[in-house]
Amino acid sequence: MMRYASFALDTQSGPNANVVGRVDGLSRAGAHVGFRGTESSIDSPSARLDARRVRSNLVETLLRYAGGPPAEEDPVTEVLAWLLASENDQALLDCFCELLTSAASAQLGRHIALRRPTVRTQVVTPRIGGGTSRYDLLLEAPRIHAVVELKIRAGLTASAIVDGAAEPGAPQRHQIDDYLALAQGAPGGHQHVVFVLAPTFVDVGLEARRHSCWGGCITWQMVHDAFERRLRAPGEAQIDPALKTIAEQLLGVMEVRRMATPRMTLDGAISIRRAARFRQSIASALESAWLELFADGTFDGFHKIDRRAWEDSAQWMRAGYHLWASRNDTNHFGFIGMWYGDNTIVDDVPDLCFFLQAKPDGGAGEALRDQAGELAKLVVMLDARSPLVRWRHDPGGWAPVWCATSLAQIVIDGDPGTAVTSHFRAATKAARDAGLLAIYFDAITRLG
Q1: What is the structure's pLDDT at 128?
Q2: What are the Cα distances from residue 259, in Å, to 76, 188, 190, 246?
Q3: Fewer CB atoms < 10 Å away: N or C end of the chain?
Q4: Mean pLDDT per 10-residue run, the chain (448 residues)?
Q5: Cβ pair 137, 81 in contact under 8 A
Q6: What is the pLDDT of residue 420?
Q7: CA 290 to each of CA 300, 308, 377: distance values in angstroms, whole numbers, following the listed order
Q8: Quick one: which of 20, 23, 244, 194 has its CA closest to 118?
Q9: Chain centre distance of CA 357
Q10: What Rg do the C-alpha atoms of the chain give, in angstroms?
Q11: Do 77 and 12 lie in a common domain?
Q12: Could you list the residue range(s) of the whole structural domain that residue 417 is in?
């Protein structure tokens, strides 16, 4: 049987399909973590999940072990299917079906009755002309079946059917053409309607758009906003807690991986100008700290170079200054700045962060792994000093040493700009006095 990151909720129905189980809660969650194939690298004893590195977002953790973007579609499909198939609460299934029926109504000019369908994944079906096709997601209602092809980053796969009669220069057939051909010849009196779920609207071509079984395209943004509206809806019945937790984690993954953006709100619109002014203020405070702490010797051992040290990266959810460990290397540096990604100390409030970066598979990374026990002991000691300043150690990661305090603590200070500089001075001094910087700089010497 095909196995996926499905929280062990899939049961075999037929030789090649997963029928998403309707179970209570997540009592069997995590019984296996596998991806396409009989055995993945994660199934091997040497690659078991390291509990020290598992993030609080289970969905994100599953994707980290999926093996890269091409392999992410299957676990995302299984997570979505589990949400839709919950027997405890069908609110999200209703939302999803409404998106499909709305798209089909606009495309076909008629209503399709997709009421409380059974949810199946990875459904293999014989293909016209030989071979098989595999549906990512199949929703089966009494008289209608909805076939949903999921895409995260990749485009449509080329058709497996070779059309020898095609004219030179004719548009290349793709998998949706195959699914539509199958849908048109579907037996049993069931109407098959084919959809695509992707980050943006997909152009399936003129022939497919005109097909009587083409239901249209929906986007991850539409799914994101529909689920979020239901999760936040005032006056509605409370959603099952397990369902709500996994749904919120999936929404977070959509945002981090650019499948969708946070839903626009009036509060967000009102906050735009204030956010822009805040970024100006924090950028000024960080520049002042960068200049002052190099000038007074706090950053001795690092290289200032020039203002190219500034980084404002939406990809890494941070803004701040690199403290170069070497003048000739860009992979190893300290960093002072603002972190506004997931898991900040105070929800929805950025952190001030100081960290040391090393390339995990390089000489410095190897040296730091050799010192993992000593680093862990020192970080635990520093973390115990104050509940307001958090230290952590990530052995084998890009940032093996990380220190943060919440900006909520900084902005209540009478002089926030000075407080930013003071925090980074204290963090750097603590790292130096504890011996962390000495271990780090010694590791950098192994680069050559």
Answers
A1: 65
A2: 11, 36, 32, 17
A3: C
A4: 32 42 33 30 29 56 70 88 88 94 90 89 79 88 90 76 51 82 73 91 88 92 92 80 90 87 80 88 94 95 89 86 89 93 85 94 90 95 95 92 94 86 96 95 78
A5: yes
A6: 95
A7: 12, 12, 29
A8: 20
A9: 22
A10: 26
A11: yes
A12: 266-447
The residues facing 1 across adjacent strands are none
Considering the domain architecture, whether residues 255 and 404 belong to the same structural domain is answered as: no
Instruction: Look at the block and give the residue holding tokens 């040391």.
Output: 356
CA–CA dist 120, 19 (Å, integer):
4
301-308: Cβ within 8 A, 24+ apart: 301/437, 301/441, 302/333, 302/334, 303/327
Determine the Cα–Cα distance for residues 305 and 377; give it in Å rounded to an integer: 33
> Token digits for 74?
């299957």
pLDDT at position 60 is 79
Q: Report CA-CA distances (Å) from 73 to 63, 336, 418.
A: 9, 35, 47
* DSSP 8-state secondary structure symbol assigned to residue 174: B
Compute φ and ψ for 323, nearest 5 degrees.
-110, 95
What token pair was written down for 242? 């397990």
Distances (CA, A) of 241 to 37, 88, 225, 231: 32, 10, 19, 11
Measure the N-to-C terminal CA separation of the chain; round to a whole number of Å. Answer: 48
Same domain (yes/no): 250, 299: no
Contact 16, 124 (CB under 8 A): yes
Q: Please name the residue that has the structure tokens 């506004």.
A: 340
> Residue 99: how many CB atoms within 10 A of its CB?
19
Contact 442, 367 (CB under 8 A): yes
* pLDDT of the residue at 377: 96
Q: Is 27 strand, coil or helix?
A: coil
Q: Do 172 and 147 share a structural domain?
A: yes
Domains in the chain: how many in total? 2
| CB-count exposure of residue 388 (10 Å: 0-12, 13-18, 19+) | exposed
Question: Is the same domain home to 191 and 59?
Answer: yes
pLDDT of residue 66: 67
- Residue 9: its pLDDT value, please? 32
Could you say which of 263, 293, 328 is where a domain stops? 263
For residue 442, CA distances in Å to 323, 334, 358 come to 16, 14, 12
State the Cα–Cα distance between residues 287 and 421, nearest whole angstrom.
9
Per DSSP, the residues of 284-347 read HHHHHHHHHHHHTTTTBTBB---GGGEEEETTTTEEEEEEES-TT-SS-EEEEEEE-SSS-SST
CB 76 within 8 A of CB 6: no
| Contact call for residues 35 and 62 (beta carbons, < 8 A) | no
Of the three residues 263, 283, 316, the one that is the final residue of a domain is 263
